[in-house]
Amino acid sequence: AQSVTQPDIHITVSEGASLELRCNYSYGATPYLFWYVQSPGQGLQLLLKYFSGDTLVQGIKGFEAEFKRSQSSFNLRKPSVHWSDAAEYFCAVEGRDKIIFGKGTRLHILP
Amino acid sequence: GAGVSQSPSNKVTEKGKDVELRCDPISGHTALYWYRQRLGQGLEFLIYFQGNSAPDKSGLPSDRFSAERTGESVSTLTIQRTQQEDSAVYLCASSTPGGFWGYTFGSGTRLTVV
Question: What is the DSSP string of B11-41?
Fold first, then answer.
């Protein structure tokens, strides 16, 4: 069965620093992969998605993610974080007809 | 509509009462999903509707939970005889068939059982 693991429950970075959020998936076929962001009190917003082709995917708000099949990973990156990036981030994999979400990584930003 | 609309945004109910949560998906989105998010937890799949096909109910935690959808429009999630462990944010999402382009989520209904 498909599953998603986000090993870091909390991540703290300083404003302006680079960011990498880890995601590992388990899926038998070529996965469809997603990153969502949930700001406090808000619904989930799609940041980016990978279906096929170029393994480096660009998303909104300056985020990108790289699909590495050999490592079953789909890590999210941003070169320079802003205070407004503080939120919870969910990695997800498309299974049979529904998306399976990881437990999320809460990002804290230090001024 | 322009987005996925959920109502009410907040619901406080007494233990043992029944509640109904409503989701109005994006027009033209044939797929509709319900997820539950407990405090500090990830998203837990509950149920999935696709057009006129039989819904995938594999995520419903107990027979107190049920959901209906009228055609390709509004869906109602019903929780009977609510328990304190039902307290959570209930999120609805809709998508084109297969969800390959990602889901659009509503803002959720925060349910508190006291």
Answer: EEE-TT--EEEEEE--TT--EEEEEEE-TT-
In this predicted model, what pLDDT tens digit does every residue of A18-43 receive, in sequence order?
999 999 998 877 788 999 999 887 78
Residues within 8 A of B (CB atoms), A 19-78 only: 32, 34, 36, 42-46, 49, 51
Cα–Cα distances in angstroms (integers) from residue B2 to residues A15, A105, B43, B82, B94, in the given order = 34, 29, 23, 32, 12
Nearest chain A alpha carbon to B93 = A44
Write out pLDDT tens, residues B5-46.
Answer: 999 999 999 999 999 999 999 998 889 999 999 987 888 999
Q: How far apart are CA B112 and CA B14, in angstroms?
A: 8
For residue A60, the SS3 value is helix
Topology at the third CATH level for domain A3-110 = Immunoglobulin-like (2.60.40)
Length of chain A: 111
Contact A42 B107 (CB under 8 A): yes
**Most B-contacting residue of A99, A101, A105 (CB-CB within 10 A), to test interface:** A99
Give the pLDDT score at B100. Answer: 63
> Which tokens go with B89?
């944010």
The domains of chain B, with CATH numbers, are 5-99 (2.60.40.10)
Asked if A34's CB is within 8 angstroms of B91's CB, the reply is no
